[in-house]
Amino acid sequence: MSIKLLNTISKPKDLRKLSIEELLQLAVELREFIIDIVATKEGHLGASLGVIELTIALHYVFDTPNDLLVWDVGHQAYGHKILTERKNTFHTNRQLRGLSGFPKRNESKYDAFGVGHSSTSISAALGMAIASKLKGESEKQHIAIIGDASIASGMAFEGLNHAGVTDANLLIILNDNAMGIDPSVGALKNYLTNIKKDKKVRRHNIIEALNFDYSGPIDGHNLNAVIEELERLKSVKGPRFLHITTTKGKGLQKAEEDQVKYHAPGKFDKITGETIPKEALRLPPKYQDIFGLTLVELAKQNKKIIGITPAMPTGSSLKFMLDEMPERAFDVGIAEQHAVTLAAGMATQGMIPFCNIYSTFLQRAYDQIIHDVALQKLSVIFCLDRAGLVGEDGATHHGVFDIPYLRCIPNMVIFAPMNEIELRNMMYTAQLGLNSPIAIRYPRGRGVTLDWQRSFKKIELGKGQLIKQGSEIATLSLGTIGNTLIEAYQSLSDNDKIAHYNMRFVKPLDTALLHIIFQKFDKILTIEDGTIVGGFGSAILEFAQENNYHNKNVKRLGMPDQFIEHGTVAQLHQQVRLDKKSILKVIKEFLK
Q: How far is C-alpha 343 from the chain's CA centre?
């Protein structure tokens, strides 16, 4: 048996010693290596399989890490990681204290820029190119690889607009696979499709109109053609744009056939490609599905309801409404700013938009929340999926900042359901009319209730509820972390000392209930699954200060003032002391 080529490759310099025929064999082995690892360890799959030939060609042609590669979005970069001195640790990908699932500057000198969110590569690579010119490094190459529908985002166009009037040594490579996580949408997608089919369209190229030297489209799986074109482009001056076409999931039949499912399929059989189902138990549904199914239920009753998501219809479960009511549900692509202001425009005309955006992605539309929605007091209902820790995707994707960044905005209502019933009831309440924007935040993953589909009940705005009476400590929870709190204090023999209040709203706070709590208790514990700086606990401290409750002992539990890395949600909760055992320890210490 011949020695596998991949075993002889630890860094790009090793790669550059191979012949083209050997590079073709390496592509086969690299795909097999990724499939073997991801099949058992889980992670993103389809995007990296689609750029294997491009990845090899880039490191073969360019002098990495001296030449700088910026991947966009970062889940395309598994092959890149394996070829850049991380092959032997790749099995730790996305695991606690292991490799990040995305390029990360402090992980490797080959990772020129940290990329977890989309559409940043052109701006970052352009900034690098301008800096290199100012430093007199005219030969250094700067390459942005933008794919998985990231080109459609507004920030990508801002970068293109600027780059086109510079003489920067910049190469933009469009990995055109007609996919994001879900299929790409919009007029640009149609335009790029037509370019591939019709030479007449190619002659009216908008990229060339922006002063780029455009080439392509070429087959991104034709390794020889990609290498030849990259070699040519190395000597071309100024901003260049290479358009390649690829198949997401290339090399695994199931991944090619179902590109949405195999974006991140979980565990699967590496031979057949069949996904391995988790243990067949009767489990509560995911919060995402509760949202999606409830929205369809409400939309059937209320013709004014609209659903909006920026490129996450499957992940957010808005796909239920897209399938059943396509004329009233919109996937706007990777365009969070547009999604928010689109919702605002609809709200001015009496519609009721449910704008569903992952918590970490809503950060990208902060000005629109303030200027276009809250300032005008428009009734946009923000459904913030993936609030709290999300697990293996790590620091770029944890939804832990939304409470502080929304709490400071006038007119904003912020609600966190403790369970699926409260999520449904708040969605029902919001569509009845609030005359202000509201953010409803809920976590990734399963709920706690099997019989969740109950009759709707209106929730009184800004009102918390008493869960359990107690005599010594008042515990105040916000959101689903309250269920972990219940598990913790129920294991105490003297849990009659622990009162529990589900506050539900962080804005407006239930001040009447808080006065009762502060007048009765000297020890108060707040708990939240968001950052402790500026969060729910801070709001409680502000209430205490403003109302002269100076002799009270208020202790806060939440995310520390640091970026939390990747691992399972259970591991990370333990790390930040939000697991059952840690909460119980805090309660016992507080009782003393």
A: 20
Do the domains 465-591 and 287-441 match in fold?
Answer: yes
Q: Are strands 523-531 and 305-309 parallel, antiparallel or unpaired?
A: unpaired
> pLDDT by residue for the chain (592 residues), tens digit each?
356 999 999 999 999 999 999 999 999 999 999 998 888 888 888 888 889 999 999 999 999 999 999 999 888 899 999 999 999 999 998 899 999 989 999 999 999 999 988 899 999 999 999 999 999 998 999 999 998 888 888 899 999 999 999 999 999 999 988 766 667 777 787 777 777 666 665 568 888 889 999 998 899 999 999 999 999 999 999 999 999 999 888 878 787 788 888 887 788 887 777 877 765 457 889 999 999 999 999 999 999 999 999 988 888 999 999 999 999 999 998 899 999 999 999 999 999 999 999 999 999 999 999 999 999 999 999 999 999 999 999 999 999 999 999 999 999 999 999 999 999 999 999 999 998 999 999 999 899 988 899 999 999 999 999 999 999 999 999 999 999 999 999 999 889 999 999 999 999 999 999 999 999 999 999 999 999 999 999 999 999 999 999 999 999 999 999 999 999 999 999 999 999 999 999 999 998 8
Q: In the structure, how many helices (H) and strands (E) does the chain have?
A: 25, 17
Query: What string of DSSP letters covers 364-432?
Result: GGHHIIIIIIITTT---EEEEETBB--STTGGGT-B-SHHHHHHTSTT-EEE--SSHHHHHHHHHHHTT
Q: What is the C-alpha separation between 253 and 9, in angstroms, rounded?
A: 27
Cα–Cα distance for residue pair 550/548, rounded to 1 Å: 5
Q: How far is CA 259 from CA 67, 73, 451, in A?
A: 32, 16, 33
In DSSP terms, which residues pair with 71 in a beta bridge?
A: 145
Q: Provide the edge-to-edge strand list for the sheet that holds 413-415.
A: 329-331, 305-309, 352-358, 381-385, 438-441, 413-415, 505-507
Per DSSP, the residues of 211-256 read: T-EEEEEEETT-HHHHHHHHHHHHT--S-EEEEEE--TTTT-HHHH
User: Per-domain residue ranges for the chain?
Assistant: 5-263, 287-441, 465-591
Distance CA 8, CA 13 (A): 11
Q: Please give the CATH number for the structural domain made up of 5-263.
A: 3.40.50.970
Q: Show which residues are catalytic.
A: 248, 336, 364
What does the block give as tokens for 169? 């040594």
CATH class of 287-441: alpha beta
465-591 is classed CATH 3.40.50.920: yes
